[in-house]
Amino acid sequence: MRSRSVLAVVATLGALSGCILFVNDDQPYGKTCKFQGSDTACGECITTACASELDACCGDKSCESQLTWLDECVSDSDAISCQVLASSAPSLVTCLEQRCGACPGSDGGAGSGSGGGGTASPSCSTYTGYCICVADGSSGGGTCSPETVSPGLCCAGSGYPADGTSCTCETFSCTVTSDGADCSLGETPTGTSSYSGNVCCSTGSGCYCSDSLDSCDDDETQVDECTVDAVGCPSGTDVTSCSF
After folding, report:
1. 3-class secondary structure for 106-153?
2. pLDDT in tens, 179-208
């Protein structure tokens, strides 16, 4: 995506979640994330013991867009949010588990079952703009599908629904800009579910329209309009439903 769109997306993510990007000159890494709860024992451990894993996620657009789960994992001590983050940032969550005893789900909690165990019935919860199913071995229940967050897309983590894995459905919506619109999956829908303009380009996990451009970049696909059908999962695998 062109620099205008990237800056707009980063600004939007910074406003919607506690995770923002900043340059840290004291670290050997080029980009680091500031997240809610970074001043807690768990957060301080992540920024020191897991700095390279955190930095790698910040530098990956598909991973960085999921870092709102890190906010909830650390600031709310929510092991399920850590587990959901594992599908996007497995190396970061593995480091958290192994090196940060103050974090929820450490020593085999958050995401520890992401590769093993038998098929588990998922437990699903619905919130504004998104729903989550976690395979935790319980009896399960709840509904989480594209229709639950319509228009939406469901993305399953590796191995789902194996015990300890998760699946998330998020709403697709567009943020209107002075030049067109930037569209993506997200937890805070804008109410605009599609957009058409002079040129609309799918980036894979997102879509944007611009009235000032004549074509898309070589690594993008030009589409008639930005709708949920123009995007795929930023991480994980597209599935028809998270619940069953």
Report:
1. CCCCCCCCCCCCCECCEEEEEECCEEEEEECCCCCECCCCCCCCCCEE
2. 999 999 998 899 999 999 899 999 999 999
